[in-house]
Design brief:
With 176 residues, the protein is mainly alpha-helical. The chain contains seven helices and no strands.
Length: 176
């Protein structure tokens, strides 16, 4: 295995958004066993160093490919499109929707049944996230990199919102 492979090449996968996650996990485990530094303990210093570097590269590639947002950003990077984490979408409808969802999140504790309200919100955000992933896959596969970049920005918004919903959920359960 050479050091300048893409994350997809490391795992023998096509560079697509919709990955077979079980194949990714199975290959990850194989590579972990193959390049585990302990297997190289009796080898030369150079071979030990290469094993450590390969193990690190395998771990990094797995982390990126396992996460849909990182995988989308990586695919765009491979296609020559740079997206900064601070970049946002210009889709006014989406931004308004995000504001409304965040307002609902802020008001969840004022609901008669905060737990049920939060569960409904989490489900809605989860569905929006799944839809945004499907949209990214669709436009990226079609070669529409401008729209794929916008889809990535939306995915980043939704991941942050999911994290906020989870934090609010933890807060609700801590108060019980």
């Amino acid at each position: 295995m050479t050091a300048n492979l893409t994350h997809f090449e490391i795992f023998g996968l096509e560079p697509v958004f919709a990955l077979d996650r079980s194949a990714l996990t199975a290959r990850y485990r194989e590579l972990q066993r193959e390049f585990h530094p302990d297997k190289y303990a009796s080898k030369s210093e150079r071979e030990q160093l290469l094993a450590v570097q390969m193990a690190a590269q395998i771990n990094e590639a797995h982390a990126v490919l396992q996460d849909p947002v990182q995988r989308a950003a990586y695919l765009l990077e491979l296609a020559g499109v740079e997206v900064s984490p601070e970049q946002t979408t210009a889709d006014v409808h989406f931004l308004m929707q995000q504001m409304q969802l965040r307002e609902r999140l802020e008001a969840v504790c004022e609901q008669p049944d905060p737990t049920t309200a939060l569960e409904a919100l989490a489900e809605e955000v989860g569905e929006l996230y799944r839809e945004a992933q499907a949209r990214f896959a669709e436009v990226f596969t079609a070669g529409n990199l401008v729209e794929a970049k916008d889809s990535l920005c939306k995915l980043q918004f939704l991941v942050k919102l999911q994290a906020q919903v989870e934090m609010r959920e933890a807060d609700l359960f801590d108060d019980d």
